Amino acid sequence: MDGIEAIWMRGGTSKGLYMHLADLPGDVAARDDLLLRLMGSPDPRQIDGVGGADPLASKVALLGPSSREDADVDYLFLQIFVDQALVSDAQACGNILAGVGPAAIEMGLVRADGDVTEVRIHMLNTGEVAVARVQTPGGVVRYDGDAAIDGVPGTAAPIELMFTNIAGSMCGALLPSGQVCDVVEGVACTLIDNGMPVVLMRAADLGLRGNESPAELEADATLKERVEAIRLAVGPLMNLGDVREKSVPKMALISPAQNGGAVNTRSFIPHRCHSSIGVFAAVSVASACTLEGSVAYDMAVRPEDGRYAIEHPSGAAEVMIRTDATGAVTGAGTLRTARKLMQGRVFPRR
Ligand code: NQM
Predict the structure, then answer these.
(1) What φ, ψ does residue 209 adopt, rounded to 5°?
(2) 317 ligand 1 Cβ < 6 A
(3) Residue pLDDT tens, the chain, 350 long
(4) Which of 80, 200, 215, 229 suits 253 as a labelling partner, its CA being 20 to 30 A distant?
(5) How much helix, strand and coil, in percent to the nearest 5, is found in the chain?
(6) pTM of the predicted model, to two decimals?
(7) Going by C-beta distance under 8 Å and a sequence separation of 6 or more, which residues neighbour residue 255?
(8) Nearest CA to ligand 1 atom 2
(9) 256: preceding bond cis by omega (within 30 degrees)
(10) Is residue 270 lining ligand 1, measured as CB closer than 6 Å?
(11) Is the CB of 163 under 6 A from ligand 1?
């Protein structure tokens, strides 16, 4: 085999391989086997593949012509587990989504249109459409610019992302258990899905300050066991079934904001601790901050302009939350950046 055409792209605070859906086998088992061999999984170091030995750098975006009329491109996100032979389509990824607009233009799936090209992205994982605004002066994707996002050094061209109708993306309802707060394994939890299934728990309820480093949290075997026990228990409550081999729900420890934001977070995705926070995870956390009775409501600072700074280990992610007259969340948006790192052909392990 001569390898497969691919772009290796940073999307937000993640990195992944962007490829044509049509270049991969249609059979899911064959496709997943190929992706594991491209990334070098299962292996904690992914030494014989292009994966970055971190769940945030072991991601794949498969792109194709849109299968619905109101979108420009189809996007299937796949999480390639690092140390297990698992590939999961059971979640979306808003960081990798940031690279989809640029990649779709580079791959010839979408034509640049003026200085800013609006790309409507059909997210196959959840069935919803996201709108990305990509800088394309002179018909060419521009990567450099003045926008900064926490968790990525330097600046780059801004990519605005807007979402609507993402409530219940994987769980069927914003609050899949029907309650704004459940007690699971003795811990108060808010089970929510506004683009990403997330379990919010107060850090203090688990004996934590909430500002521990990801390394400290990952080293705490007792905590990890407790968090995993809660995760396995809430799977059926969130309509996700047995989540033992799934990358959702994400587990977010929350505490009062420490740097002027809305709330502070540390998230397990679901076993490794995120160095920042996922995009849709941040949208789900911000949405929980608006719900009276949630574990976040009392500690959250709700900004009048709807721009929620969700604090995380490397700064904060800003999420715009739109609400209707009743206060119900109707849409969300965020600003990300992306950068093409390499383009060429990628070769799987035999
Ligand atoms: O929540 C990591 C990431 C993500 C997902 C993860 C994401 C999102 O930071 O939309 O972006 O939660 O596994 O790329």
Answers:
(1) -80, -40
(2) no
(3) 589 999 999 999 999 999 999 999 999 999 999 999 999 999 999 999 999 999 999 999 999 999 999 999 999 999 999 999 999 998 899 999 999 999 999 999 999 999 999 999 999 999 999 999 999 999 999 999 999 999 999 999 999 999 988 999 999 999 999 999 999 999 999 999 999 999 999 999 999 999 999 999 999 999 999 999 999 999 999 999 999 999 999 999 999 999 999 999 999 999 999 999 999 999 999 999 999 999 999 999 999 999 999 999 999 999 999 999 898 889 999 999 999 999 999 999 99
(4) 80
(5) 20, 35, 45
(6) 0.93
(7) 202, 203, 204, 208, 209, 210, 211, 263, 264, 265, 299
(8) 278
(9) no
(10) no
(11) no
Give the ipTM: 0.93
Count of residues for the chain? 350
Q: Tell me the CA–centroid distance for residue 92 and ligand 1, in Å.
A: 8
Pocket test for ligand 1, best of 200, 279, 285 (most atoms within 8 A of CB): 279
Q: Is 143 in the pocket of ligand 1 (CB under 6 A)?
A: no
